[in-house]
Amino acid sequence: MLAFARRTLLAAAALSLLSGAALSAPLRIVASSVPHAEILRFVKEKLAPDLDVAIIEISGDIRPNSLILHGDADANFFQHAPYLRTEEAQLGTTFAVTAATHIEPLGIYSRKVKSLADVPAGATVALPNNVTNLSRALNLLQASGLITLKAGLKGGQLATPSDIADNPKRIALVQVAPAQLPRSIDDVTLAIQAV
């Protein structure tokens, strides 16, 4: 989602009305390195070279919504709606959403097994440690037949490890910062991360 602090939304609306008038400072947009910052750079370089934006790449534990809330950035481009809603609740604020964005699919990766049927008992699975992608990863494990989640999770309710009803292979779940997931692949049986 492209989210703005409410005061910045007004500035962005004014920007679109200025039709090319120069701003005193670039619009500061926070984006995850891959793919969001890459997308913004492509747009700036190929489609809108006159667009005055400063792309602030983030990774790791930096909270982009907090940067907007505290005035260190004007907008961000990286998140899906469930993540945004969780952040709003934690930060005690509401952000204006100006556009929807794509959601990267999750993939299951391994250097130790060739297929999900080969996952041994007691396997270790690395999952993203942020609440929304953790939920998506658990749902992917369920769709892959490795676990079963409790019935009755309501629409929009995020799954957590405590919602696992059945884990027949007794797989161990390890929550890892998303930026560290590619590095964890040699230490676990499976790693689940954005494609």
From TrEMBL:
Which compartment or compartments is the protein found in? Answer: Membrane
Record membrane topology: Lipid-anchor
Q: Which InterPro entries match?
A: Lipoprotein_NlpA
Query: Record's superkingdom?
Result: Bacteria
Q: Does the keyword Signal apply?
A: yes
Q: One Pfam family name from the record?
A: Lipoprotein_9
Q: Which residues form the signal peptide?
A: 1-24
The protein's UniProt keywords, in alphabetical order, are: Lipoprotein, Membrane, Palmitate, Signal
Chief place of localization: membrane
Can you quote a single GO CC term? membrane
Q: Describe the family membership recorded for this protein in Swiss-Prot or TrEMBL.
A: Belongs to the NlpA lipoprotein family.
Q: Which PANTHER family match?
A: D-METHIONINE-BINDING LIPOPROTEIN METQ, METHIONINE-BINDING LIPOPROTEIN METQ
What is this protein called in UniProt? Metal ABC transporter substrate-binding protein
